[in-house]
Fold these 4 entries.
Entry 1:
Amino acid sequence: MTQRGAPDVEVALATGDLVTLSAGFARAFGRVEAYRASLREKDSEEDPIGDARPLAGQKAFESIGKLLEGDPLAREGARRAVAALTLFRIGAPLERALFLALGKERELTFPTGTMSSFSASVAALACEHEPRARLAHLDLMLAAASDVAAPQRELSMVRREICARLAVAHPLAYAAESSVLELRTAAETLLSRTTRLWEDVVARQKKLAGDPSWSPLSGVNLARVDSAVEGWPARVSREWLTDVVPALRDRAIVPARAQRLVGAASFSRVLYAYGVELRRRSAPRSLPFYVAQDPWPRAAYKLGYMLAALPCAVAFQRRSLGLSPGVAQDQSRELTVGALVSVRWLSARVLLGLADQSSERFTELTLAVFGAPFPERLGGAWPTARLSDGARLLGMLDAQTWSTEMVRRFDDDWFANPRAGKDIQNQITGPMRTLEDPSAPPQPSITQRVGELARALEAPFG
């Protein structure tokens, strides 16, 4: 990739040309996103940072901190942008190696002659219905696990070293603007607080099936929510989003990366992607890129999770899907079970990301989340490391607080209230990050916020 224009960014750092710096950041992040998307299709050795390389490194991190010292919001936003580009630039060869390992095709044992990859087989565990095919995909993951785990472990180590060099927190904690202690407390408390509910769900499912046996794939099945079949469209469209969330009628957009529709939980994922994309698009373009956007946008995850939770609400099932009270109650419970698995899995991902992903810890957490452990050989290979997991977890807790407030102010069908829609739009059209208001009332503790989410998950079951 050409380096033409690189001196412009270096000069901008030296002279304080914020317009050029903002354009440089926007260009760099656009290229990184395009590069990562291209790796899903084909291998590439090109340099995606290109002429913005001066914005990635310890020198840039320190320089931009001094340049914006008088503007705390812009300073931290720019430092986070530099940190993200630095993490990518240094980790890019390992990211590429990980993508290649995840995408390497192997032959499945069933159906014979069929090829798959580690990443495709992970998706198949959630989407495939044929039991023998799912087991074949799991076998393929086990065969490829060591090839995936090696670059993933090295990438995690490199990321921790980079953050230490920049004198910031653990990568997951830094991305979440939190601490290791807070993230660990949130994840462990969520798992602990919802364990009894999860055990009751598993016991009920075994009783309904008349079969005491249980495998981790049984837990994956629950996350899919195949049983809630009423009221859903064959495909997602702008018109459907307008119909089910009329409060945001003027802002409806079909997410760019629409999910494959498998089970009712797919629609929660679509609503999540819609919320994230809507929040990102709503940030003012008049602001510098590093203020308007964020590499790990907790505010976007917050809106995404608030919309994703709507299908769990009886009011949504009745008003948006037009179901009878009894069917609405049933589907609300079933979708809440799917949400429960997802919440617990995200908590487990955070705990694995904060630690070294040992086989013992992997076994312990997959047992807790799915009701039976996945083979320990998958530890370190799956789940794929994701720097945003901590921000997503805290964004989920933010979303529950916001949802509770929306119900209090606009009733349980707030998603159909134009006043609620205007209120949301007023909140999502500012910078992606904001400074804490010292005059604001104290925020609930992390354990209180976890308790609020746990109570919401328990509510449909009485």
Entry 2:
Amino acid sequence: MLKGFIPSTIIYIIMYWTSKKVTLYNKKMKYFILFSIIMVFTISGVFITYHAVLVALLPFLYATIYSSKAMIRYVYFLTVISTIVVVYGVCVYMWKYFENSKWKY
């Protein structure tokens, strides 16, 4: 649990500091914020596995705030990549976990 919590917290802190330094009216800032949210989803998805299914909807909710088709497409593209990383990361993480466990078949 801490393996996913600590990197997610670090990303949120970086996102917070960046949003304080750069004005929120900057066009690139909204892309950076959504990218950070998707990174947090990816990290939590790999380490929390199937409990993070509802977290996948949060980037779409944030993208609808901007009501821009380009923003929703950007989030959709990154979420697809993130889901692939989550599924592959869960498989690799579980394989390494069972490889090192005492349960031998």
Entry 3:
Amino acid sequence: MQSFTLLVFLVFLFVVFRSLKSKALEWQQIDSRLVFFFLIVNPLTLLFAFTFRPEILVMSLGFFSFLLLKGKHTNAQLILSAALAGTALLVHLNGLMFIVAGFALLLPFMAFIAASFFTELKKTGRPVLQAIGIVLILFQISSAAIGLGETFGRRESTAAILAKTLSGFPGNGEKVLVPYRFVFNQLPVKNLVSFKTMEYHQVAKGEKFTKDEFLELAVRLGIHYLVVPPEMLSHNKMYPWMNEEFKDIEKEGSFVKLKIETGANVLLRVE
């Protein structure tokens, strides 16, 4: 499967090269050698080009979508651009940024497009479709408003919540197993290990870890504590043993802090 990612990356490089040489774009004066230099010398680019992960595919789909929106574009190009951005979202949630960017780019034309659409429906005598269109627009506006309200209405920032969660652990450098989102804010403060580490070992093993296998691996990796997020307390398909382990505390709806009792394969609650 790594060959598929490499193939996508090579197609991406080819499209970048062609776009730099295109007379229709404003950046043809940029030296293509400089662009390829920065792409190739980036170690993460090369790493992910030979790794079966979605980053390269998401990057490529987003760039292709962007190219279709540059300059003059037909309706077919707009539809294809939207399809590529939507596919990027299906590949990885980070692909949402291309949908948002495309929406922002086309925002000045939205009112004109909507007016033309509803005028055409009115001329052709289709009141049902007109009503459905209005309902969908109102639903989209209200959903966006609710989402913004929830985002800006939080009492405490995510970074503050994560810092508070880790505050109960000793500051002696002992490793703490945490969800991936902790790494972005708290890695300079604590010695963190992501659950992704356990996931990779489990995939290499070819079957799900039992509780004992999970804790034995954690001890071998020097992990002394772990933080289990609310979404992993129940219906956990990655680590099924957690469903039974945390069935009495899953309703708390908060992060659970635990200490691994070395040698006994026991998890003790840390308050």
Entry 4:
Amino acid sequence: MNWRFLLYTLSLFFISCSQAYDGSDETLAHFRNVFIKDTLMTSSYIDLEKYDILEPVHAIKRDGMFYLWHTTSYDSIIARINPKDNTVIQGVSEGQGPGEIIPGISFQIWRDTLLIYEANRTRYHVVNDNGEDLYLSDYREISKDPSVGFISKIHLLTDGYIIQGIQQGLDNAWLSTYNNENSVTSTIAFPDYEAYEGVDSWYIGFILSGTIIALSPDKQKIVCTHRSGGSSIYFGVIKNGNSVHEVKRWNYQAPILRKVLLEGVEATVETRLSPMSFMGLACSDKYVYAVYAGRTIEEYGITEAFQGDHLLIYDWKGNPVKHYLLEKPLYSLGYEEETQTLYGISYDPEGVLVEYQLNEEGL
């Protein structure tokens, strides 16, 4: 069976009904019992429709400008917006020819370089900006371990990389780290949910394909979570530039799963009554910022369920610090240290870019 067709088919089951969600939220209870939440108001609001960007996926702010990965058109999937003069540059086509990319699965800043990862060619590309156009150049190839069937998330480390995907050769591995010789250096296990007992790791890997990974500015600490598949968050330290060791892990509420028959084969999928979890992560030296949804597709629909209006702030030991309600829910999250602002994509109902100003302490 074609891989893309299989993912599409499984996604149809993902919005099928099953047992009811009881409405409790262990993630918010972790904060609600101790800290008072305030509403954080937007400090800036950019309507992306006026730039012909209708389906933004992720935003990165660099040198006062926003770089957006979007799926509005095959002809241009990356845009650069300068909010000071309201100008936009579009570039990089989706395809398999020279200078094109398909599909992109990771958009990140690494050592002041803007990178996008291409799953088909297992390669990172540099997104270049010459002031008039955006274009790609090769950065590095990741020759993945043959046991890894598919990479759905990847992030560079100082002396290696970390991936999430279908990892049949690594039992119970949610994430695995590799050195630059492509040897496994450490693994992070799947969240310890009773719902996952007896479920093949292939299906758990798919359910957790919305994994989010963020590193501290010094690249010595890491935090990982996932949009669906239950609510959990992992805090770790990075040793030797490529090996992750746990500091704290919170496994909050479990996912709601069901078994279905797919072309005569039993498969395990998540249902539309399972709450969505964390939508974005960003980090400072002191804090981890996490946008949390806690919404179900059954109640909110797909677009609204994948936006979070709770900003949960942890320290790097995994302790809860503060809980804000956000004026505009976010689909993604970024942090700019120089201005102490958080930013991200929201759908209102079309794509917009919003910023939230933190205080001098980053709270």
